[in-house]
Amino acid sequence: xxxxxxxxxxxxxxxxxxxxxxxxxxxxxxxxxxxxxxxxxxxxxxxxxxxxxxxxxxxxxxxxxxxxxxxxxxxxxxxxxxxxxxxxxxxxxxxxxxxxxxxxxxxxxxxxxxxxxxxxxxxxxxxxxxxxxxxxxxxxxxxxxxxxxxxxxxxxxxxxxxxxxxxxxxxxxxxxxxxxxxxxxxxxxxxxxxxxxxxxxxxxxxxxxxxxxxxxxxxxxxxxxxxxxxxxxxxxxxxxxxxxxxxxxxxxxxxxxxxxxxxxxxxxxxxxxxxxxxxxxxxxxxxxxxxxxxxxxxxxxxxxxxxxxxxxxxxxxxxxxxxxxxxxxxxxx
Length: 333
Fold this sequence. Notes:
It is built from 13 helices and 13 strands. The chain has 333 residues and is of the alpha/beta class.
């Protein structure tokens, strides 16, 4: 039997009807016990106001999902972990989550401040994972449709990297592709709903620019959802190591012929600018293998920001050099 993935156009200002339809299509009632505990993980990967619209999960989508859930249970918790340079509270505040949650009666939790449970993977020794997240009756992930410079794509699987509750989780980047999958194996996704109202292309997941698709996708299978999201924007799922690995260990289905995509895929599909893992990102990933250099260079704002400004200046020079010269005008014969 083919794995279903549902895709619908949506109104950016009021996605509630579409969100409700997608959740119903995924039979969400069967996943949420009456009065049960539900953890909802949006992608709140930045606190920067100028990047929130295309980097973070839309507040309208998060509100719609929580509104539907509250019809069955009062126990809805919205979660995120501290970022490398900002606390989760800043992302909650700047994205409007606190105000929305208060209006709906939802809880908001910084996973970095929750009780942590040890996990069996030796590569994550000392990290631990949130008790609230691990023990919830239902876990719903709300990724944004985005390109990613290291993983090619970030979606329903990669969103759980933000469930690792330490701000210095970049130390785990040397195992990134496998550990994304391990986190999803430790706490499987119950339902995934992908926000493609805006999305991001180019140097994702934070520094790219918008994709305006006005689309939402949903599935119980996060691998199938990511594969479909990638194909929707012209990316080949086999190029994303963590998506392939997740399929390999049985977390979901990847092959197009084994998926049943319900919705106007061909009408919406477009080719976007991919994220390129350039020399600077490769160097950063190499540096992150050293705990000493990570803490004293990558996570030291006084050093990191001047280096980043210099790197972006060099990138600009290379970009100008690569820009083709305008064609010479041709004269009439």
